Amino acid sequence: MFYYRETSPPSPLGDEKESKMSQIQFSSPSDKQNTLALQKRAEAVCVQNAYKHYGSNKRPNHVLSKLNMTVKKGTIYGLLGASGCGKTTLLSCIVGRRKLNSGDIWVLGGKPGTKGSGVPGKRVGYMPQEIALYGEFTIKETMMYFGWIFGMETREIVERLRFLLDFLDLPSENRMVKNLSGGQQRRVSFAVALMHDPELLILDEPTVGVDPLLRQSIWTHLVRITSSGDKTVIITTHYIEEARQAHCIGLMRSGRLLAEDPPQALLRMYNCISLEDVFLKLSRKQGQGNQVPEITVSGGGLGLNKMSKREEAPYANEDAQVIGLNFHQSKEVLIVDNGVGSNGDLPGKKSEAATDCTDCAGRFSFTSRGKIKALIQKNFLRMWRNIGVMLFIFALPVMQVILFCLAIGRDPSGLKMAIVNHDVNVFDGYCPYNSSCSMKNLSCRYLDNLKNESIIKNYYADLDDAKEAVRQGEAWGVIYFNENYTDSLVARLALGDTADNETILSSEVEVWLDMSNQQIGLMLSRDIQFSYRDFAKGLLSSCNYNPKVGDIPIDFKDPIYGDTNPSFTDFVAPGVILTIVFFLAVALTSSALIVERTEGLLDRSWVAGVSPGEILFSHVVTQFVVMCGQTALVLIFMILVFGVKSNGNIAYVVMLTILQGLCGMCFGFVISAACELERNAIQLALGSFYPTLLLSGVIWPIEGMPWILRYVSTCLPLTLATSSLRSILTRGWPITDPDVYMGFVSTILWITLFLVLTITILRFKRG
Ligand SMILES: Nc1ncnc2c1ncn2[C@@H]1O[C@H](COP(=O)(O)OP(=O)(O)OP(=O)(O)O)[C@@H](O)[C@H]1O
């Protein structure tokens, strides 16, 4: 059993001696423990035995070490310390942005990050060190964005905005944040933290770059809002002396609190005239080997062991009763013993968690309309206000399609061939022949069949000169007719299988090609052979023979799918459509999130209560709209303007393209979650582009790869989708065909995998 006796009203000034909890008398040690647990929950913030390090467990960079801190409700707590001592880290743990490696934090009676605690969320107002504002927003839009996230009504936001504009001497609400001065931007940032009149205001260096008059008015405001006793402020500042106006000061060094007391008490205790001197004195003592008094947690509250207790008190040795106190356990004990509420509150007092849980709706619903509205509007507004992004989103895909269709897949033209015709002795290009059944100048008749639009015939008198021209890169090949060509060919046709070898050899057209360029080499070789076939057929039919006799005895009928003369463009186009949409989405998403993070915007939204899931959801919605626009443009240009084959159901083409865009967006999420810097994200996005392009069967069939690589290729997000789209477009296959639906299935699986990965990485990073 325990009982308490309230002998004096609680002091907002945080003086332990005046605290009502210090008046509690205990009948047993376990009662004392339970009461201390309640006491911690009653504070605005209570940090116990906190450890935090960055980096891996093997090579940790310890930032917080055995840190204890208590912030009483209704007070201003000034957290002071040298740069890099861990203030921001501590604050980010308090607001639930990061997790401790060990130790406990209670904020407004709950543990940050737990459901229903309201932290992160609207119970806290957080002003980070960075400006953390959207530069392309006006002041009013900034306030609307955060107001909606905090669940405020538009009318409320407008009213509050008027007050804040006036109070913080801000310029017109329609001014763009990026056009404000540094000091004005800081004030807008401060206004955002004050926007929803939170119970706990956490300000990380709010007075940097603010003129002395405004600085004083900020402090006056902080004193005023805390005077009612229900608002608490934690503030860090490098202007140590301004912290005299705080009710309690925590002096921090190397991840520990050296002292935690009201400013006057510190000055008195250390016999100093300025807080700076106190800090220096304490720092010196710490440097001399742990001779600084420890901040202890005891039944009477948290405080500095007075110097009179000998200054050699070792570092933070917590009261044994408090270390390792298990809140859940104490809760159960209280229920049994005292009929105290299951939340651990004292009898007769309404449950703090119940009364203060202003964010309770969040326990049951995934999100709120206000948050989603704010996030989606923010995404669109940022895109709309940024001309470069707009061009990137809509002009780039169109440009890529146009360039692809113009530059890829067409037959090369204007290819120079060196012709040496000793059969007719042509030097100036004039090569006469008779198109009737004439057996004269057959070399000229053949040459006339060579495609004039793709091949330019340059005549040479000497074979060696012609070959030298190829060696010099002046021609792609040599076509040579010997002096007996026509006669030999006629003899060969007449003699049939009795023709001698010499006749057969001299009836051949001799060709030397530059095969260094496979596409050109293959095309020339194809054209040279096809034109011979046409020449032979023409000659035979003019002499009333069956032209089929001149063809090879294989008859290629109309293809089942595709054209007799297939276009490379039709083969590559499906992969190109998907690659364009996929990688544009990667680029757009990965950089968008990283920019928000490096500018502190993501942190601010998280602390305001936006979850990673909500951020992802808002981006999915925004990207979906963008993707629909991009898909429409890409398909219109590919199919309608450039006539890429589309034999299947266009609805499936659209669906698959949009899904691939979403897949690219999710890959972008993974990159942005994994990379700290935009530079790394760009490297990763670019680095993944070529392997994906090369291995996905976009430009070359995967059947041409070694076996192992084929398996790797099949596992990539673009491979099965490309094959599926190709089957829809060129073969017109339906969704029921395995080759088609596997493209959809693999894309959906990849989207799921990327989303899970992103959320896992974000959660891990928050820790
Ligand atoms: N994300 C991070 N990853 C690794 N180390 C970090 C990270 N954030 C901070 N640190 C390191 O942790 C230490 C404490 O940083 P923190 O920002 O908390 O200090 P601070 O007291 O707020 O400094 P300042 O007053 O200059 O803002 C520094 O050494 C810093 O380099």
Automatic annotation (TrEMBL):
It is a multi-pass membrane protein. GO terms for molecular function: ABC-type transporter activity; ATP binding; ATP hydrolysis activity. Residues 1-32 are annotated as: Disordered. Residues 45-279 form the ABC transporter domain. Coiled coil: none annotated. The keyword Membrane applies. The chain crosses the membrane at residues 387-409, 571-595, 615-643, 650-674, 680-700, 707-729, 741-762. Pfam families: ABC2_membrane_3 (PF12698), ABC_tran (PF00005). GO terms for cellular component: ATP-binding cassette (ABC) transporter complex. Residues 538-765 form the ABC transmembrane type-2 domain. Keywords: ATP-binding, Membrane, Nucleotide-binding, Transmembrane, Transmembrane helix. Residues 21-32 have a biased composition (Polar residues). Its main location: membrane. SMART domains: AAA. It is found in: Membrane. It comes from the Eukaryota. This is ABC transporter G family member 23. It comes from Pieris macdunnoughi.
